[in-house]
Amino acid sequence: MDRLLFSVDKYMSIRLLLICLDKLASPLKDDEFVYPCIQFVCINLSWQVKTNGKFGNERSNFVYKRLSIVMFPFLMLALIGASVWGYLEHQQKNTILIKAENQYQRAFHDLSYHMDTLHTELGNTLAVNTTSEPSYRKGLVNVWRLTSQAQSDINQLPLTLLPFNKTGDFLANMANFSYRMSVRDMTKNPLNEQEMKTLNALYDHSKEITSELRGVQDKVIANNLRWMDVELALASQNEAQDNAIIDGFSSVDKKVGAYEELNWGPGNMNIFSKNDVKMLSGNEMTPDEIKQKASQFLGLKDPSGLKVIENGGSAPEYQSYSVLLPGTGGSENETQMDFTKKGGHLVYFMKPRNVQAAKFDLRQARDTANEFLDQHEYKNMSAVSYDQFQNIANLIFAKRENDVTIYPQQISVKVALDTLEVIGLQATDYIYGQKQRTIGQPKITMEEARKQLNPKMEVTGQSLAIIKNELDQEVLCHEFIGKLNNNVYRIYMNGELGTEEKIETIRPQQITAPAK
Fold it and tell me: Is the dihedral of CA 181, 438, 466, 350 positive or negative?
């Protein structure tokens, strides 16, 4: 009986050993190799327990020798492989951490340097005689450049979870202010007393910010502080943040927030401003009134299928209504519309669907979109831009009044080129750009403005237009469309000064589908 058990166990043991070797040689999961090996060891152990007598010790020694010969090399290989893998992973992780730390340290020291240089440049600008227009312009350009570099340095630091927005806003406003002053003709419009006061305040504030950053820099160098620790501390919101770098930057932001509000001038671009609901006409609308307007726009007889959602809460600048119309294919084909709460003006419309093929051209799409706008509240619009993507025409229309194109009042329309169906509309600029404008005559005639163009340019079209300049101010201009070096350009010449206000490159298809 013992010999029979020995033969069976020997056969099973050899079979499982071959399975182990086969699994080891094939690219399978770890458990597909481990389980047969465990069975192999268990059978040998059970066979050792079951057997006794004169074959017990011999078979036990034989089993241990066989296990040692077979398993020891594999275990050693596995141990060596795991050690090498762990070492390489550790080295790679350290390399990435060192690289990130070096980038953070470079950005931080660059920030300290740029703020120090910015403070010096502001002092140099204030020291210049106000009648020295070139020196003032050069100094303000340097202030704008250094402020932009400081903003770039801040964006490279791991400060996402740290309140540092007041300092960022302060630098953005300083950059806008210095840029506006540098591009202004100071021979005709020199810096006034209020602007000089603002420059002096910027000089004092930059000194305080530079001093605070130097203090943080000294601590970083003296204590060998790491920015990776800052990132970990900010990510661990449950732990107390006791970090010299975090404390230093928080102190800077608090000081900047406590500064007295500066007069940045009436022409400040104010990139943080929101659409003003006071510019809208009409009374506040109820959800039922919005549902009626939406059904009228969509041509629905029964508005019961429309779902109206109120947005914005108590903040007036965000108050609006969203209207949803379920589609046949689920939420992906859902028609979406947005209305202002005040006046119930449609600012957004989208009817998503696949457009398989283009059966019509851009000119036909333009005519369809123009007719669509005329049928609704968007009158006297002229197409100024054309584009085509995935068999959908994207057209931009601008308000036209007294033969003057008003570019600040724009509407974007999407037209499907398979059926000429209007499937999208964006009218935010048009709605919030409505206001009473007194459009006069430019001091510079069309012929005088044309003489200021490049003599080699072939002019193919000209008209009057109102655009927004770099100071976000509306300016009456002479608009020229011309060709030069196989490119088509749209050039705006200031109607008061005769100088180039803005230049745009336009695509050839915008010429092949001219506006009405």
Answer: positive
